[in-house]
């Protein structure tokens, strides 16, 4: 059964965040809130976590996983960014954007797009997600919690706990965080490509 943690949306309890971070380090797959919607998250190198996310969401090997980072310096360890792209992304973070970029050797091979060798990265503007990332000291391997055949992600932590009780290890709930996923911007092809329009304003990229 999944553990359920109810935390304050702006000042999450440090002990609870510490407990969830410890469970992630021990291989747990958790559900946590972001500035767009709930996400599935596990430790960066967890093969079991990756497999469980693929199974829950019914994903193929072309799916771009996302490395959810605490800050820009952490993000820069995992992707190659030229100066122009650096300035563009820096101005838009933290926020509800996922950026697809060429991955560095720090990214486990199983996370890469099989042909492009790219990975998604983002920096959330959400107090609970930021607290969890600060406690972990490394990115969370993540994917939007959108179940197969459903058009919108679930918004209630208690409902997520009920439906995914036997396939995730913990649910971190700080209230409704919306149903609109991140805006996805692909910088990997040399030119900016808006792959998905979502919660992040695309005006600055057009």
Automatic annotation (TrEMBL):
Signal peptide: none
Ranges of residues in domain YrdC-like: 14-200
Gene3D superfamilies the record matches: DHBP synthase
InterPro entries reported in the protein's UniProt record: DHBP_synth_RibB-like_a/b_dom (IPR017945), Sua5-like_dom (IPR006070), SUA5_domain (IPR052532)
GO molecular function (one): double-stranded RNA binding
Protein's UniProt name: Threonylcarbamoyl-AMP synthase
Organism from which the protein derives: Streptomyces auratus AGR0001
